[in-house]
Amino acid sequence: MGVVEEAHNVKVMGSGSKTVVLGHGFGTDQSVWKHLVPALVDEYRVVVYDNMGSGPTNPDYFDFERYSSLEGYAYDLIAILEELQITSCIYLGHSISSMTGVIASIFRPDLFSKIVLLSASPRFINAEDYFGGFEKEDIDQLCQAMESNYKSWIDGFAPLVIGGDMDSVAVQEFSRTLFNVRPDISLSVFRTIFTFDLRHFLSRVTVPCHIIQSSKDLAVPVAVSEYIHQNLGGKSIVEVISTEGHLPHLSAPEVTIPVLLRHISHDITTDDAC
Hints:
Blueprint: H1 3-7, E1 11-13, E2 19-23, H2 37-40, E3 45-48, H3 70-83, E4 89-94, H4 96-107, E5 112-118, H5 136-148, H6 150-162, H7 169-179, H8 183-195, E6 209-216, H9 222-231, E7 236-244, H10 248-251, H11 253-265
Parallel strand pairs: 2-3, 2-4, 4-5, 5-6, 6-7
Antiparallel strand pairs: 1-3
Helix pairs in contact: 3-4, 5-6, 5-8, 6-7
GO molecular function, one term: hydrolase activity
Family: Belongs to the AB hydrolase superfamily.
Pfam family, one: Abhydrolase_6
């Protein structure tokens, strides 16, 4: 195993002719794909990995400056693909990792045949001409709560993001992976995500993009998926699924997994992209 593979806990499963790479979102790790991977391995070569700073990674490897922007994560993704000698892949990224894939595809479009964006947002804070869902004051308050009492913050944040109560299996799972992240790293990543503005990158994306999100997502209003669709430089398609929460692949796999499989296996047609 190479240095990059080991640092990101890379696992390769299946042996299909096409490769699917799965990137997880904030506060989770590769285990969040547990409902999807079994449905992929018979047909695809599947690669999962942990973003630097997630619970299973070595916190000493987390460079606060490198990961203060998504370019750091994009370079990690490219390094993983290069070390595995993957020349083209279908990339499925959730939340932060969806935008990581977008940026990586601008740097190296040859490495991506398509990107599936799940619960993606190029900017979470509202602007004069853009509805991202949050005011800056909302983010400041959330950061203060994280600094004050990380465990209490998780107890409040996890049910809101998942769209369930603390007794929900999905909420408990998300709480577990959030709690496994070192609090100072979690706060740094949270600030990076909720203060970035990546809208200017969208027009530079030429790789086909499949945009999927919940009909009710506290973090990403439905209007955001349409904004991404209208501003991407290449072909794209949007599908809003009848699920609640920012992690539908964890909270509603019975609805979400078939949708993800369909977008992984079928390419955008001319009629779709209109």
